[in-house]
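Quality-control log, excerpt.
Job 1 of 2 completed; input and output follow.
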Amino acid sequence: MNFSDFATEIYPFLEIQPFHSVYYRVLEAFARGDIRRLIITMPPQHGKSVGATTLLPAYMLGLNPELRIAIASYSGSLASRFNRRVQRILESREYAELFPETTIKRGAKPANYIRTADEVEIIGHDGALLSVGREGSLTGNRVDCFILDDLYKDAMEANSPIIRENCWEWYTSVVRTRMHNFSRELIVFTRWHEEDLIGTITSKEPCRELRSFKDLEEVGENEWLYLNFEALKASPATEIDPRNLGEALWEERHSAALLQQKRNLDTMRFECMYQGHPSSREGLLYGNGFSEYDTLPRDIVRYGNYTDTADTGDDYLCSICYAVDTDGIIYICDVVYSREPMEVTECEVAEMLCRNRTRTAAIESNNGGRGFARAVQRMAPSTKVEWFHQSGNKEARILSNSATALHLLRFPRCWQQRWHELFAHLTTYRRTFHSNRWHDAADVITGIIERETRTAFRSKISFVK
């Protein structure tokens, strides 16, 4: 029996969504030993623990009652709760029909077998299920399989360098020392911080992102396999997760509209918990440091636009209309931030230029930008469209202009609700350049700063002359 059929047999009330089918298929590969080291991250309330920490241990003990499995969590009481749930499955009538060889103590008999909230032994076999809290001990116990579920209680714990260090020390001194050549590890979390246990492990050991089912066969013996389910699809479609961009993982339970509301409340927390893309606030280039405005001032002297077309299919076209006042303060007025094809974004950008009565627009000619500029010029004849080649080093430009961007730029009030992806990519943009997935938004605001500071400098020179 495969794991998905086992799950619905034991819990007939389960609502199996397409991503659950993928999740259970990967867990089955782990249960059968095809994968030795597996990391899965998933948003809250999507069935993570039901699959990995409740049903999976029972399934594995059914396949092999000689296994010694340990469940670990941030507290001993939570780990014990998982253990008791598994025990209830092991003594159920449905389980006995599926795996009659795997039984546990009932009442006081057999007297020579252990059954507590933290440990239960399989009768007639060497197998057992153990549970332990983070920083707890497993002295003297051999462990064939570790399941680590939520080793941090909340954001406060995950953001504490002391607790993160204690968690790492416990992992290396307890978990790793109880394992042998054939032991398996499964880590299932909601991410909280880029330097949590998952972040530390993947920075130190080889890791393969799970994109296709072929990866299940090709993963190396000592290589981690990493599967991340985003609440709102933001990465390119794969065989594992073929959703369209912006599509919710479980629309019937957690709709895209509801998730967007949560994103608007705290973009960084949403990227951590719901998207699996954590970043620490102390490592951010901009953070929430951009100033906001309610209405444009009266002393606007110039309206402009800066556009960077998408480099690849995964990149965003970013086009920003802005206004500049007599003091050189730059007010962001309108934005097109999209991964739609050029035939769509050409119209959107042209309409935005007309809507904002933009006099001049600068479009980078790299990567097809010249053809894009010509198309936009035809559709927005009242705007003077200029194209140019951007030859400067992107990393150096973005980093060196970041302080000026924070000083000069003003975004409209509640801009995170109008342009939520732009907001997310700017406010979570990290100082370590290569840690960022998308550079498009940062690149364009950098281009605006460079262009307007040069204009201001030329104006001063002309005035002196």
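Job 2 of 2 completed; input and output follow.
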Amino acid sequence: MDLSDGLNYYALSDTHEYSKAASKAGMYWDEKLDFLVLIGDISSHLETSDDINLINEIAHNITKGEKPVVYARGNHEVKAHLADQLYRYVGSKDDKFYYTFKLNGVYGIVMDLGEDHNDDWWEFYDFAHFDLYRAEQTAFLEQLLLSGEHLAPDVNYRMLISHIPVAYVQDNFLKDFKEEWTALLNQFNLDIALSGHHHQLMPITTDVPHSVDLRFHASYHQDTERVRGYRTDGNFNTFVVSRKSNVQDVSIPENLYGKRISGLAVETDFINNEQIVCYTNTKLEVVEVVNPFTGDLYKKLILPLE
């Protein structure tokens, strides 16, 4: 990757089998693409090798095998017969899906919050040990901070990738882990955090109040009374992708046949020290979105680099 002309990357999540629409949306940058990010739930259940290879299919359709691809495991990809074989298909050295990566001047941390139920959830039959797995990652972050590798002089851009957002808590699920991880991640000078899971085009920016009950803004949703969760005290902006739709409007249901999907395009300008973030769809159009918690409307959001 050559960062002398800036950085362009695309992020997709929650495609759930529908590779054609995902592949169309992921072509937004075309030849300008530097790397692709797949943020989990690309497949719903890993029953067969074909289910797993959907990840590689989308990656190949967009990059033709010529650009780097960063993969984060989703909560659906811990399920079914071949879930323990996933690492063999996506280039992992083992069955741990948390790691760091370095692409020229880009430094990334990939975290894996695992399932979206507690370990005592009836469906797991006492076989789930995700709390131990998450505790490993707390130690992992602590070791990364001690190493100081994120401060290397050749690092120009720092990012966090996790299927389930770290800086957003719903129903107090994983509250303690997310709070603890946020305190550690705040020390990495992150430029951006990318997540999926919620099937929404949802910027959770630092201008959203932290540590207080959040409700949807009237311009985003008619139900403004229900508490939707809260933002942790993260000093980094989080963008939740994707949605199986060409629009953000939640009054329009997601497309059940997988013909439409919107993802996230990011353009980084190192000369002006800023990044331009926008959601785009299968028509390669920029999607106008509203911040669900502040009501701010935008097509492209310009953010300073850390």
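Post-run check on job 2. The chain has one domain: 3-304.
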